[in-house]
Amino acid sequence: MSKLLIIDDERSIRNTLKEILADEGHEVDVAENGTQGLEMAQNKAYDLIYSDIKMPGMDGLEVLEKIVESRKSKVESEESIDCPVVMITGHGDVETAVQALKAGAYDFLLKPLDLNRILITTKNALESKTLKQETKRLRTKVQAKGPQMIGKSAAIQRVRDIIEKVAPTEARVLITGPNGTGKEVVAHLIHQQSSRANGPMVEVNCAAIPSELIESELFGHMKGSFTGAVKDRAGKFEQADGGTLFLDEIGDMSLAAQTKVLRALQESEITRVGSDKAIKVNVRVLAATNKDLAAEIAKGNFREDLFHRLNVIPIHVPSLNERIEDIPLLVDYFCERICDEQGIAVKTFDATAIQALQAREWTGNIRQLRNVVERLIILAGAKITKDDVDLYA
């Protein structure tokens, strides 16, 4: 049953609307002025509000303004009013009603009220609210499946604190740490919390691209510039324009490519392979590596000037062995997600299983832990114990 509120200083309008909508199976409350109506809306969750425009004291436009204002906070509160508002107006106030639509009203009804129009408007407004709620639910579900940093240890909290400070800036970040610790998660969180969040997030695994192709991959190429270049192609820098470029495993990049990346960072422009035309790019670069770049510089494998360009804000992601107190939370997180993916009932890890997992050496870090949890879920029973860990992990 939908909950509706009617705000109107005319008793006949209130009673007519209430009777019509109650006959349709809705629960209907009424208020005789704007102040009373706004207070009721703040204290009860309505699915739809009808409000007259012309009322003594607080008129309908003021009510609408306060309702719209209550939605602007990113944090939901008891005073947040999240439902459609339909304005009621006379023929002479159509211009005001249009103004109300621009201010955030869902629709308006003209006096004298028409039965069919009331029913259609109510149906459409309620469907609109349902659709909005479903969209919000799906968006939340999608976000929940996105990259997350799980844990409450001091080591991981330090990483969170740095992300929170650096994300809103344009500073370049160099993310270091062993394989499998979640360096790409850090990069995604920085992008998501930045002013570029609505722009593209483009990832390049520098270790997975042959050295002879890395320049084409990063900067693009022109048709005929090399064998196999059958058409012009934009590189990752161009694709990331207005957003973030994540250079993963940058320690494996060739010196020739490093030189061009350094130029791109210095001048905010790139040149496609086979072209002499410079292209301006607006890109924030995040880089990650599991290598000791200071040692690579000493060996002549990495440019020191590029290192200093990238290492404006260093973030070191701790190994799992440095944060074993986070293992129970990580196990719960992976267990829930894996069971959902497999379409099976969520299994449980008893205290002995958790202790056994905490006692292990995790050379593969978070990635290895996830694989072990998945193996245990598939091979063990509904309640996973130390014996299961000893047998399958």
Brief descriptors of the model:
393 residues; alpha/beta; Rossmann fold; Helicase, Ruva Protein, domain 3; 3 domains; five-stranded parallel beta sheet; 16 helices; 14 strands; 15% strand; extended
By DSSP (H or I, 4+ residues per run), the number of helices equals 16
DSSP strand (E) fraction?
A: 5-15%
Radius of gyration: 29 Å
Record the strand order, biggest sheet.
2-1-3-4-5
Main sheet record: 5 strands, parallel
Number of strands: 14
Known CATH architecture of the largest domain: 3-Layer(aba) Sandwich
By CATH's scheme, which homologous superfamily of the largest domain applies?
P-loop containing nucleotide triphosphate hydrolases
Number of domains: 3
Mean pLDDT: 91
Helix content: 40-55%
SSE string, helices as H and strands as E = EHEHEHEHEHHEHEHHEHEEEHHEHEHHEH
- How far do the termini sit from each other? 52 Å
CATH fold-level assignment of the largest domain: Rossmann fold
- What low-confidence regions span 5 or more consecutive residues with pLDDT below 50? 73-78
Structural class label: alpha/beta
Structural commentary:
- By secondary structure, the chain is an alpha/beta fold.
- The protein has 3 domains: 3-139, Response regulator (Rossmann fold); 154-318, 3-Layer(aba) Sandwich (Rossmann fold), CATH 3.40.50.300; 321-392, Helicase, Ruva Protein, domain 3 (Orthogonal Bundle), CATH 1.10.8.
- The protein has 16 helices and 14 strands.
- It has a 5-stranded parallel beta sheet with strand order 2-1-3-4-5, with helices on both faces. The chain has a 5-stranded parallel beta sheet with strand order 7-8-11-6-12. The chain has a two-stranded antiparallel ribbon with strand order 9-10.
- Helix 13 packs across helix 15.
- The protein is extended.
- Mean pLDDT is 91; it is low at 73-78.
